[in-house]
Design a protein that fits this description.
The protein is mainly alpha-helical and 447 residues long. It has helices at 11-22, 25-37, 41-69, 73-81, 87-120, 129-141, 145-162, 165-192, 197-205, 214-227, 234-239, 247-275, 286-297, 301-335, 339-360, 374-401, 404-413, 418-443; strands at 368-369, 372-373. Helices cover 78% and strands 1% of the residues. The protein binds tryptophan.
Amino acid sequence: MSQQRTQFASKFGVIAAAVGSAVGLGNIWKFPYIVGQNGGGAFLIVYVVCVLLMGFLAIMTEMSVGRMSQASPLDAFRKLTGNNRWTFIGAMGFFSAFMILGFYLVVAGWSLEYLVQSVTTFSFNGMSTEQLEENFSVFSTASVRPYIWTVVFIVLNVVVISMGVQKGIEKCSEILMPILFLVILYLAVSAFFLPNSYAGYEFYLSPDFSKISPSVVLSALGQSFFSLSLGIGAILTYGSYIKEGNIVHTSWQICLLDTLIAFLAGLVIFPSVFAYGIEPGQGPSLAFIALPAVFSQMPGGIAFSILFFLLISIAALTSTISLFETCVASIVDHFNLKRGWTLAAISLLLLLTCSLCCASLNPALHLTVFGMTVFDFFDYLTSDILLPLGGLVMSIFLGWCFSKDKFHKALTEFGMPEWLFRIYMVFVRFIVPVVILLVMLQQLGLF
Ligand code: TRP
């Protein structure tokens, strides 16, 4: 018999860790920008519907697989079915987590650089937008500095993960998530008092239903999966550290908090950007060019700037921890290796992968795959292909190939009412696979 698996110690710890995984760059940097570009309030409504109908069910699915199997992604499916046929789902999850880490850690490193720059440049004092653009492009394409910050971020992850599930991941999330929440709340309230902030709310929140098209709906769905950390077994891994509790409540709380924080991020960004007449639709550079431009003009911008980059750094840290843990736990369980050695080996491999991602941003080095930088390629391959594919095969497995009785028992024991199980099964068997397939075909440009 295998030894007792480590468990999260408290309900609050479970929520903090799972919300920590979910709340990340996807919420604070990507979500507001996508909302702004896709019909404001109208997109928000579509997004919430996606979270409620698909995300909520998908979280319950991953969590229940983790809890039932008490194993990480690489072993969970073999433990549930007794054969190896489904191990590929876990293997896909492992590689996806690893590749997401490759580019995500680099952006996380940027947030640390900007946290430091907020102090050293007195919140980018006196810098024009052109200078800020130059600042960002020189920094992000440099060879050494961004990599050093990435390494710092890897070290932070290693420190937390080496302290274990309870004392490391759970404790760290329990401390950081309330801080994150207070900081974002404070920033959202302060943004309200900026001059002309109203225009920002108008841009962010007034629904423009004419912008809603099938492709916008599908991008809302993709974003909800990424934001809720679904499709690669990260929530599954955390689910394997849970034995009790009510799965419906837990999943619901994760969805609610993740969406709330994404929404609050928009309430910080848009009023600020509009207050200072900065262009809001510039995408990836929004956080690293547009916002510093705001901070440089704002009275008290230094505090705002430090808090904002602290916020992104915290959000990125708890998210990278969940990705890291998914990789570490998979290898430890599957090959029965020591956690410390596994952590060291994965960190070394990540040092290599991240160096490729970092270096590929320097155009002079021509590090491209299929015409994309390695950085963009990893983002594309995971977000657009592997994540939805993971969700698709997991729902096919549970809907069609796994014993319905066992699944029913696992979920109802875990607090799911009978009526919800019936609806849930229809979703897992039919709706989820069809919708994900549509998303994938759309993202691949096939329709
Ligand atoms: N959800 C995080 C974000 O919004 C990123 C993330 C963490 C993630 N773990 C994941 C994405 C697992 C997909 C799968 O930034």
